[in-house]
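Methods: example folding runs. The two proteins below were folded one after another, and each record is reproduced exactly as written to the output file, sequence line first and structure-token line second.
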Amino acid sequence: MDLTGLGSIADLAKGIMDKFWPPSADPNEKLKAQMALQQMIEIRENAVIDAQKNIIVSEMAQGDSYTKRARPTIVYAGLAFIFMVHVVMPILSFFKGTPMPTSITLPAEFWWAWTGVCGIWVIGRSAEKRGAEGAVISAITGSK
């Protein structure tokens, strides 16, 4: 199991070299080119990870506390949408005496996004309440 990600970078570089480098080429030259490509890919990956880290750190460091509460807002807004579509609308339809329109449904994308956010947030909050600490828990819950 490659925990560092370096193996996957090396495999990617080797795969690229195998596709574009002729099989009859000098193996030493191919190895040099593969190592150079591997270093370029590694630099790019590090830049992407650093950029993501900097974005998360700046979001958590800003004074706007709403950004830190955005996850619970998504949870509560999703519950409100579910309540409206599956409770309010059927009750209104019942009292109006008309059948519930079948076109009023929450899309599959809503369910995927909402359950993903809720699942991650609930796991993070549960871990935080048990005393777990760390950058990942802080990023999930928005706490410091």
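Second run, written to the same file directly after the first:
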Amino acid sequence: MNKIAEERQKVGLSQSGLAAELGWTTSRIGNYEAGIRKPDLESCRLLVSALNRLGCRTTLDQLFPPFES
């Protein structure tokens, strides 16, 4: 499970605000947050960069925690 919604909400950002920053649709963000779609690596990196530009302090591993073995 990812932590997109958690990080986004920490800085008071809406799904539509994050989508606008990335040039994506709000439904794409919603689908990622709900786990309906899984972003590819490039999209993950874009999400981390956008969130950090908007006030978050997150990394790829924090936003998309690796599975515990």
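Comment on the second run: The radius of gyration is 11 Å.
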